[in-house]
Structure to design on (224 residues):
C-alpha cells in the first residue's frame, strides 16, 4: 500500500510539473532511503514531495523484559523550503509528514526460559507468545533547517547536494501488547492478562518521551 501510494503521488507530481524546471533527489538518513521531487513555488520557495523507507531490526530491554523488535519506517512528506535571501543555499523547512512508522515487538524469555511481568514470573511455555505493536499519529508536522538547492541555476553541473536537519512531531505512542497461547489454568491466565496490561502501561511510559522523531538526511540532487 505504501509503495502504491508513493508511486501514484510521484506520477501525479511529475505530470503536473512537466512544463516546469524540476529536480529530483536521492536521500539517505534517519528516515531511511528515498527520494523527493523538487518544484519551484516562488522565487525563494521550493516544494519537495517524497517518500522514504527502511526496515530496521534491533533488540531492546525495558522493565526487565527483552524484546526483539522489527522496525518498519515508512514516511511520505510534503515540505516547503524557504531560502532566506536570494542566492543563499541555507533554507528553513516546514511541512507535513505522513508517519507510517511502526515497530513490531516480541518478548524474549531470559536464559532460564522465563518472563517476569509485573513482578510475577512465568515460563515461556505458560505465556505462549507475548507480542505487540508500537505506532504513532499519522499526520506529523515537520520543522527543520537545511543547506542546498536542487534548482539553483548557478550550478555549473546539474548535480548538487543537500543536507537536512530537523524533526517531526509524532506525539504519544500507540502501544498494543497481548499474550497469545496461554497453556495453564484459567486463573493463572487471567492473572497473566492483568500483568500484560500492566507491562503495556510501563512500556508506553518508557517510550513516551520520544514524541519527536529526529531527521538527519543527506541528498544527491539532479536538476532537469
Amino acid at each position: 500500500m505504501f509503495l502504491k501510494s508513493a508511486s501514484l503521488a510521484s506520477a501525479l507530481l511529475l505530470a503536473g510539473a512537466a512544463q516546469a524546471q524540476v529536480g529530483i533527489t536521492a536521500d539517505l538518513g534517519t528516515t531511511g532511503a528515498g527520494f523527493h521531487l523538487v518544484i519551484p513555488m516562488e522565487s525563494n520557495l521550493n516544494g519537495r514531495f517524497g517518500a522514504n523507507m527502511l526496515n530496521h531490526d534491533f533488540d531492546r530491554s525495558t522493565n526487565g523484559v527483552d524484546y526483539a523488535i522489527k522496525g518498519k519506517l515508512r514516511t511520505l512528506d510534503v515540505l516547503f523550503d524557504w531560502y532566506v535571501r536570494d542566492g543563499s543555499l541555507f533554507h528553513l523547512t516546514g511541512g507535513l509528514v505522513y508517519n507510517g512508522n511502526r515497530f513490531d515487538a516480541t518478548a524474549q524469555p531470559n536464559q532460564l526460559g522465563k518472563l517476569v511481568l509485573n513482578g510475577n514470573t512465568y515460563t515461556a511455555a505458560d505465556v505462549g507468545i507475548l507480542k505487540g505493536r508500537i505506532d504513532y499519529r499519522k499526520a506529523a508536522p515537520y520543522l527543520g533547517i537545511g543547506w542546498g538547492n536542487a534548482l539553483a541555476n548557478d550550478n555549473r553541473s546539474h548535480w548538487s547536494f543537500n543536507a537536512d536537519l530537523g524533526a517531526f512531531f509524532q506525539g504519544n505512542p500507540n502501544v498494543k501488547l497481548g499474550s497469545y497461547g496461554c497453556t495453564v489454568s484459567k486463573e493463572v491466565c487471567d492473572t497473566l492478562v492483568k500483568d500484560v496490561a500492566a507491562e503495556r502501561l510501563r512500556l508506553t511510559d518508557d517510550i513516551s518521551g520520544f514524541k519527536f522523531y529526529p531527521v538527519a538526511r543527506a541528498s544527491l540532487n539532479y536538476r532537469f
Residues 1-50+77-97+139-167+213-224 form one domain. The longest strand covers residues 65-83. The CA atoms of residues 87 and 154 lie 9 Å apart.
